[in-house]
TrEMBL record:
<dbReference type="InterPro" id="IPR011990">
    <property type="entry name" value="TPR-like_helical_dom_sf"/>
</dbReference>
<protein>
    <submittedName>
        <fullName>Tetratricopeptide repeat protein</fullName>
    </submittedName>
</protein>
Amino acid sequence: MTNSLLENLLAFYREDPDDPFNMYALAMEYAKSDPAKAGQFYNMLLTEHSAYLPTYYHAAAFFALRDKVEQADEIYRKGIELALLQKNNKTHQELVRAYRNFLDEMDD
């Protein structure tokens, strides 16, 4: 069985590899089936498209689930700072809540 969504996302990425949304969509899809590839795409986004705010919430949660605590912590902090810089209050609030939950889980 083939994954037509993944195939379509890969085609979009090949057409425009510099579009951060294409990388983001691939990271999200690969997170379901191939965590190593998902991690690669999240890292590419964080490096090559550091201003792409949607990455931070999901990337931090992804790395936290894989016990990469320091990396997740750094991603949450950078995302919170970026949301403030971009004056994106909703995303800022979501990241702060997620970060607090992350810290609470680390204390348990």
